[in-house]
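Worked example (supplementary).
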Amino acid sequence: MRQLKLSKAFTLIEPGPVVLVTTCAAGRANVMTISWTMVLDFTPLFAFTTGPWNHSFAALEQQRECVIAIPTVDLLDTVVGIGTCSGRDTDKFARFGIAALAGPVLGVPLIEAGCAAWMECRLIPERHTEDAYDTCFAEVVAAAADPAVFADGRWDFRADNAALHTLHHLGAGNFARASDVIRAQPLQAA
Amino acid sequence: MRQLKLSKAFTLIEPGPVVLVTTCAAGRANVMTISWTMVLDFTPLFAFTTGPWNHSFAALEQQRECVIAIPTVDLLDTVVGIGTCSGRDTDKFARFGIAALAGPVLGVPLIEAGCAAWMECRLIPERHTEDAYDTCFAEVVAAAADPAVFADGRWDFRADNAALHTLHHLGAGNFARASDVIRAQPLQAA
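After joint prediction of all chains, the assembly is encoded as:
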């Protein structure tokens, strides 16, 4: 991974990939898989939605820090495994053999292996959206991306790095791979 | 397009596609291209972020209704064209030769040609997120999808319907196509 300028980090989430959110509360690391994320601002700010049914939500409310990592196609089986058990009764890092590094600013547990990028985040105090919509607003304090798939401030999906492309949840356990980079042709006025 | 059960509509946005948001205020239709969207709840509720720099924002604040349509690869040139001019001085429907239908519940202008699905929406009164983050929360009141690419309540991306796949913004005018449907293999505990 290579450290990323914070002003480029919004691009990581903009295409809508599945993400892994790692937390730590009372000394216990946990990780959840979610798809409900959004860029809020270029600065960068993000929103993500989870909820009280999710064991990580209590850790988020308590510690107000997390890392959002972006897993690749290579990590799909683990991503789904993480999403189908609970931190309530499972140490997911042990169960799936995941190494937890420490975020550089806040020290939040961080997953690099099998991921294309990560952002260490601090929650913004917006209790109404948390309480009414289970939605957290977060500011990024550090970010990094794998130069093999993210270069010059944007995703660089090519045929020769397909295993590093992002996952997009289509419903019912089906995922699409983001691929086939295309650009628009300028239109003449009708 | 075929009418979609509202309980399935969250799946349309979950993979993070680029969307077109149509509005109407003072009898004038407009449309903008955005990527910053999120599912808020299965019911379905959505969030999307725009801002006062955007001409559509004033129409949203005034009328509090919109249609979120999901364009396909086929519409890429128009999608980028819409995103690079302003409704302030341009009738985008005329300029890009777009037909505007009327949404079935609210009558909001609606784009079907070149789109895979649409959702007619009413804004939820959450003025703080609008004012502080340029973020609107919306509930869906009607939805439809093209059965050629959305079937059994989920996206059905295949090699033979690639022109109907969704667009995902990678930055700097580059887009990925969501493709290659994959499923996870169950993991054994480590």
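Two points are worth noting when inspecting this output. Residues 169 and 175 of chain A are 5 Å apart (CA to CA). The longest strand of chain A covers residues 135-145.
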